[in-house]
Structure formats: C-alpha cells, structure tokens
Write the structure tokens for this entry.
Amino acid sequence: MNKRKNIITVAIDSPAAAGAGTQAKFIAKEYNLLYLDTGKIYRLIGKIKLTAGKKFNHSFIKKKISKIKISQLNNTKLISDDIAKCASIVAKDNNIRKLVKKFQLNCAYNPPKKYSGSVLDGRDITSVIMKDAMFKFYITANLKIRAKRRYKEFKKLKKKISYKEVLKSLRKRDYLDKNRKHSPLKKTQDSILINTSKLSKKACFIKIKEIIDNEINT
Ligand code: C5P
C-alpha cells in the first residue's frame, strides 16, 4: 500500500466511554486531521447483522464493507447499547477484522489531500492497525466514571436505559474486548497512558496537545 509521506498520524486505543472519541475530535480539529472512529465500523456491522438475520455471511458482509463511507458512520442510530453489544460480538471474528483493516489503513495512511494526517481511535489501533503511528495514546478511566458518562449521553439522546444496565454492559464489553483471541484491547508499551477519571475534557486535551506540540515543533 502506498502511504502519503510527511503526515501526522495519531493512534488511540481505549475501553468504551473513556473519552477517546472526544479527544480524537479535538486532535483532528487542532491539527487538521482526518478522524476515523473505528468503533463505528464495528457498530455498523453489528447493526447490519441485527437486521440481516440469516443473510449475514462472509460474502454478504464483504460486499457491504467494501462500500462503507465515513459519512455512514455518523448515524446516531449506531449509538445504542444493543448495537454496541452486537459490535463487540462481530469484532471477535478475525475474518471481519481483516475486511475492516483495509478500510482503516487507507484512512490512516492515505487521508484525502486536504488533511495533514489522520487520527484513529478504537481497540487495536496502536497494537495492530497503526503500529508505526507518530503518536500513540491509551486513554482510560475508572469503570463507574465511564458508565456515568455513557449513561448521561444516552439520557441526552432519550434512550431508555438505566445506569445499572449501562454499567453491566460496559463491564461485559471490557471483558470481551480485553480477552478475545484476535486483536484484544491492550496498552502497548510505546503508548502514552492518559487517565481521564479526574480530568476535564479540556485538561485532558491540554496534556495531549503538549505532547504533540513538543514533538512536531522540535
Ligand atoms: O468504540 P465503540 O464502543 O464504538 O466500539 C464498539 C465495539 O467495537 C467495541 O466494544 C469493540 O468490540 C469493537 N471495536 C474493535 N476494534 C476497534 C474498535 C471497536 O474491536 N478498533
């Protein structure tokens, strides 16, 4: 694969609702980078699986994945607990992961010319997809704090779900994502750990910006 030269590449991994998406969007805006929320791809596949039923097989999903557009990933319907659960089930399948990888690599290393680079967040971005990224972060937060944040987001979107259900679901997804055979979530040695439990969104971004500026301005 041809890679665009001299671009800024940022890779982020995190458990669900740790604030990685928010920080990735800040980074994208600050440095004019293409942002890809890779969790949304698995959510989209999860949604397709939920609606396709028996039609869902390798060639069916291969065709669908080959047609994915970033704009499809902004659909707020993807922000539901049922779809998140299904996403983490389809994400265990290495054949699906292989199909998604190509799309991710293209966004990561060949972002459209109008961008100065890319920022991707997910579960295997620092460990598999962008091992050689210029910047690698592992963003995390305490489980209960993450559950509270996610619960608030659901409330805003008027989703019917209790705090307890959100907590249970995040705990289960953490377990599945960290313990699966292929591309499990883990902090790579070369990733910078950012714990957002006690940090505001802004304070967290100041930390990240300092790290990036320090490197690109020297
Ligand atoms: O980040 P988000 O919560 O939207 O991700 C949904 C699910 O997609 C995760 O729980 C995980 O199972 C899967 N995922 C993954 N690899 C990624 C991104 C997400 O396996 N790079």
